[in-house]
């Protein structure tokens, strides 16, 4: 089976509520767990009413409490928004509550607009400290050293796995230098996917954490019983990205029959470029698409995003993608 995981955006549906989105994320994680997924990750976003994952560690706790074996984590925490000590305390607590199940992916973008950056009391220069902050954070999860003046209670000794996330070359270089696993955000920024993968692998330095490179690639995966139905469901994601291009963050919308009536030609070109790393279709199309993605990128794992309006159809898509990951592995035989 191709290792597969779920990127949970905790999208609030048009006509729905944040509580429904949060409970839906928990329920979908259980579906993914039963379907054999490795992990489910939640991303930090701020000032976006359509996404209910701003308090990311709290959401992770909610999902972890509703599942039993699947790994749960951040994909990711935007580290420049936070003191490393606070992040260590939060994720160390999660690791004590859910042993050997917590991941911590780290990004250096703010995850929001510039006005909200100021509301977060974020120093605009804090992103420059990202490599140093990662190393500091790593030290808090290590076994407590004699004479240590500062402890991230109860993080010491939990060894929470750190990942570097990115959509540019910076994250690839840093993950390689620190010998950490790397996840590329190709589900919305695919342009540098292949150069980043090559740079990460060629520059990788083995570490106490990882002996060889481990790369995860993100893709939009929309599955249904037929290709036509999947393409219909995909219009929800296409509208979401069109709204992003327009600077309007709307709730997750029901699919429509004619996406060309929604966007302009210029918007279509922009959105299709952003969504280039997408696999949309029935079971056979999903298996072939996953196989091609892994063969082209050499990904060790695929993490899938699925902006589907109807919760039942989204759960069905997650199950189909899990089955496709098994079928895709057989296609290589």
TrEMBL record:
<dbReference type="InterPro" id="IPR019949">
    <property type="entry name" value="CmoO-like"/>
</dbReference>
<dbReference type="InterPro" id="IPR011251">
    <property type="entry name" value="Luciferase-like_dom"/>
</dbReference>
<dbReference type="InterPro" id="IPR036661">
    <property type="entry name" value="Luciferase-like_sf"/>
</dbReference>
<dbReference type="InterPro" id="IPR050766">
    <property type="entry name" value="Bact_Lucif_Oxidored"/>
</dbReference>
<comment type="similarity">
    <text>To bacterial alkanal monooxygenase alpha and beta chains.</text>
</comment>
<feature type="domain" description="Luciferase-like">
    <location>
        <begin position="12"/>
        <end position="300"/>
    </location>
</feature>
<dbReference type="Pfam" id="PF00296">
    <property type="entry name" value="Bac_luciferase"/>
</dbReference>
<protein>
    <submittedName>
        <fullName>LLM class flavin-dependent oxidoreductase</fullName>
    </submittedName>
</protein>
């Amino acid at each position: 089976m191709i290792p597969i995981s779920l990127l949970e955006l905790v999208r609030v549906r048009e006509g729905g509520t944040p509580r429904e989105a949060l409970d839906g994320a928990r329920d979908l994680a259980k579906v993914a767990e039963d379907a054999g997924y490795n992990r489910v990750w939640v991303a930090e976003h701020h000032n976006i009413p359509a996404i209910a994952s701003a308090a990311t560690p709290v959401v992770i706790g909610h999902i972890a409490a509703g599942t039993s074996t699947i790994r749960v984590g951040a994909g990711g925490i935007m580290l420049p928004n936070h003191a490393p000590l606070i992040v260590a305390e939060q994720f160390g607590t999660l690791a004590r509550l859910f042993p050997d199940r917590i991941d911590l992916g780290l990004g250096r973008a703010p995850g929001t607009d510039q006005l909200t950056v100021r509301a977060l009391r974020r120093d605009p220069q804090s992103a420059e400290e990202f490599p140093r902050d990662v190393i500091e954070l790593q030290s808090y999860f290590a076994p407590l050293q004699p004479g240590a003046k500062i402890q991230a209670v109860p993080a010491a000794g939990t060894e929470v796995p750190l990942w570097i996330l990115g959509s540019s070359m910076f994250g690839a270089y840093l993950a390689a230098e620190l010998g950490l696993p790397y996840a590329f955000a190709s589900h919305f920024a695919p342009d540098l996917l292949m150069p980043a993968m090559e740079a990460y692998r060629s520059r990788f330095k083995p570490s106490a954490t990882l002996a060889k490179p481990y790369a995860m690639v993100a893709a939009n995966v929309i599955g249904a019983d037929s290709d036509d139905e999947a393409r219909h469901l995909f219009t929800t994601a296409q509208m979401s990205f069109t709204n992003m291009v327009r600077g309007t963050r709307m709730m997750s919308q029901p699919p429509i029959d004619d996406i060309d009536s929604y966007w302009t030609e210029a918007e279509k070109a922009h959105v299709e470029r952003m969504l280039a790393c997408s696999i949309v279709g029935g079971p056979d199309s999903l298996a072939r698409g996953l196989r091609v993605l892994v063969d082209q990128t050499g990904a060790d794992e695929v993490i899938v995003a699925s902006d589907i309006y109807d919760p039942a159809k989204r759960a069905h898509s997650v199950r189909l993608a899990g089955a496709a990951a098994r079928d895709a592995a057989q296609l290589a035989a």
